[in-house]
UniProtKB/TrEMBL annotation:
Name of this chain's protein: non-specific serine/threonine protein kinase
Chief localization: membrane
GO function terms (MF aspect): ATP binding; protein serine/threonine kinase activity
Domain of life: Eukaryota
Leader sequence residues: none
Organism of origin: Papaver somniferum (Opium poppy)
Length: 503
């Protein structure tokens, strides 16, 4: 087992760690936008990257959702969601939303894959983007980005702490219009059953439009909820969704945002015609809104809800009308919603951890020290094959330096241990992954996480399948606040230990 060149380690920086085997990213899961990208500025796609559209196995999605546990359901079955939606977490720690159709929903697997692939090519910051599908036997599932901050319906109709302020309602209206306009320009003019349950809030509190409504009708799904009061008149006549039907549904959402209630369009239009606009407004706003802005939105809603489809405005007009009505463009959405900004917490490892793994997960340096002292050099066997000629005085001096380092390490004199282990390493006649791991811990205990990471990586170069090398990298990465990479490394180490046990 040869060692990497030391120059590689000296030139490696944390931001370049994806080149290291233990930190490699799965290109089938995480990539730049992919497909027809139109990210634009502001509000960005989660973490600046959106996964490419991929096929997932049923086994992977079953594991991600804990065997489709009822505890993971985020959208209940019923007229608003005829098929269940679960949240789940993939092995790479990414949260996902999984829509599971009944077995008869898409009898033709080819049609399902074509539909999903078409929607999967869309990429926009205003969409909860579709990132994959599963078509396995009778199973039909869609996988989308997970939005952790509930639906517009929850924030408007079922709020507990505070209602949505006026400026945020205007932002929601604009973002929905932008999402639909983007989809329309990409050839997806139809959106099925647009309502407040289809608008989701991401980790930054930004509203996103669910990609699930972009799929065509399935056999057991309905284009619109069974409540006929909110259904476009033309759909009642011919049972077809048209681009003008989508505009009508936009009008119902504008009514929701104005009133804070789900008011039947006919009733709302009667109020508008009677110029009872203030009666239409949500009383929970307590008058904290611009009458001029509200008048514009009421007028726009009225246009969208016209009985004749040709009299309704197009999506471009919606965007152009709503764009100037944004009073707080600099305020983050999560602030206006009154929610904490979501930070990605380190994932719970997918595999059970050994005592070393648990100590690294806790970042318990004292426990790690005790384990390394106890394990001594048993994992170094086979990493060196020395010729008789190499057993020279220099060799004896090198081993003496390591011995002094071991005494210092045992006695927690970490500065001396670093010096002695460095003497051993610099000679270069013999390589020892354990020495690198020990010196890595010494660097951690001396508040030098960069140096610790380099040593842990070097230990991996010497012994590519050594769990301890990965565990030490995990701790160093966590110290460098690279929590996602640290969690990935922890899982990698646990996987290597699992393979060891099987052998």
């Amino acid at each position: 087992m040869g060692c990497c060149q030391s120059s590689f380690l000296r030139e490696t920086h944390p931001e370049k760690l994806q080149k290291n085997r233990g930190l490699s990213l799965n290109p089938s899961i995480i990539n730049t936008t992919g497909g027809d990208s139109d990210q634009g500025g502001g509000g960005g796609v989660v973490g600046g990257v959106t996964p490419v559209f991929s096929e997932y196995s049923f086994t992977d999605l079953k594991a991600a959702t804990n065997n489709f546990s009822s505890d993971y359901i985020v959208s209940e079955s019923g007229e608003k969601a005829p098929n269940l939606v679960y949240k789940g977490r993939l092995q790479n720690r990414r949260w996902i939303a999984v829509k599971k159709f009944t077995k008869l929903a898409w009898p033709d697997p080819k049609q399902f894959v074509e539909e999903a692939s078409g929607v999967g090519r869309l990429r926009h910051r205003r969409l909860a983007n579709l990132i994959g599908y599963c078509c396995d036997g009778d199973e039909r599932l869609l996988v989308a980005e997970y939005m952790p901050n509930d639906t517009l319906a929850k924030h408007l109709f079922h709020w507990e702490s505070q209602t949505i302020e006026w400026a945020m309602r205007l932002r929601v209206a604009l973002y929905i219009a932008e999402a639909l306009e983007y989809c329309s320009t990409k050839g997806h003019k139809l959106y099925h059953d647009l309502n407040a349950y289809r608008v989701l809030f991401d980790e930054d509190g930004d509203p996103r439009l669910s990609c699930f409504g972009l799929m065509k009708n399935s056999r057991d799904g309905k284009s619109y909820s069974t409540n006929l009061a909110y259904t476009p008149p033309e759909y009642l006549r011919n049972g077809r969704v048209t681009p003008e039907s989508v505009i009508f549904s936009c009008g119902t959402i504008l009514l929701d945002l104005l009133s804070g209630k789900h008011i039947p369009p006919s009733h709302a239009l009667d109020m508008i015609r009677g110029k009872n606009i203030l009666l239409l407004m949500d009383s929970h706003l307590e008058g904290k809104f611009s009458t001029e802005e509200a008048t514009v939105v009421v007028g726009l809603a009225s246009e969208c809800l016209q009985y004749e489809p040709r009299e309704r405005p197009n999506l471009q007009k919606l965007v152009e009308t709503l764009e100037p009505l944004q009073p707080k463009p600099e305020v983050p959405s999560y602030v206006m919603l009154g929610i904490p900004k979501q930070e990605e917490a380190p994932a719970t490892p997918q595999r059970p951890l050994s005592p070393m793994g648990e100590a690294c997960q806790r970042m318990d340096l004292t426990a790690i020290h005790q384990i390394l002292v106890t394990s001594h050099y048993r994992d170094d066997e086979g990493t060196n094959e020395l010729s008789f000629q190499e057993w020279t005085q220099q060799m004896r001096d090198m081993l003496e330096a390591r011995k002094r380092g071991d005494f210092a390490f045992r006695d927690k004199d970490f500065k001396t241990a670093i010096d002695c282990y460095s003497q051993f390493i610099d000679v270069g006649t013999m390589v020892s992954p354990t020495v690198y791991a020990r010196r890595s811990l010494c660097h951690l205990l001396s508040d030098q996480p960069d140096a610790a990471l380099r040593d842990a990586m070097q230990a991996q170069c010497v012994y590519p399948d050594w769990p301890t090398a990965f565990y030490m990298q995990a701790v160093a990465l966590a110290k460098l606040n690279m929590d996602k990479d640290a969690a990935d490394m922890l899982n990698e180490a646990a996987g290597l230990e699992e393979k060891r046990q099987r052998r």
